[in-house]
Amino acid sequence: MASSVRDGETEFWFRAHENGITFGFSEAEWSAVGKLFRRAWEMPEIQTTWDELTMEYGEL
């Protein structure tokens, strides 16, 4: 991940090294993504799945 400032606003950029696909988020969008992931992580189904995968594959 990289960040840059354009027109006074911070942007967050991701680039997949394997295929060069790049996408970016404004600061507000990045904040919304973070909130979405936090909400998902709190779901019992996600915690159960994570625990099962950790048991099967070790630390993820």
What secondary-structure arrangement, pairings included, does this model have?
Layout: E1 2-6, E2 9-15, E3 22-26, H1 27-41, H2 44-57
Can you characterise this structure?
The chain is an alpha+beta fold and 60 residues long. The chain has one domain. The chain is 48% helix and 28% strand. The protein contains two helices and three strands. It has helices at 27-41, 44-57, and strands at residues 2-6, 9-15, 22-26. A three-stranded antiparallel sheet has the order 1-2-3. Strand 1 (2-6) and strand 2 form a beta hairpin. It is flat. The two termini are 20 Å apart. 0% of the residues are buried.
Supply the helix-strand structural class. alpha+beta
Major sheet: 3 strands, antiparallel
Q: Could you say which overall geometry the principal axes of the C-alpha atoms support?
A: flat
Strand order within the widest beta sheet: 1-2-3
Distance between the termini: 20 Å
Task: List descriptors.
3 strands; alpha+beta
Give a concise summary.
The chain contains 2 helices and 3 strands; from the N terminus they run E-E-E-H-H. It has helices at 27-41, 44-57, and strands at residues 2-6, 9-15, 22-26. Strand 2 and strand 3 (22-26) form a beta hairpin.
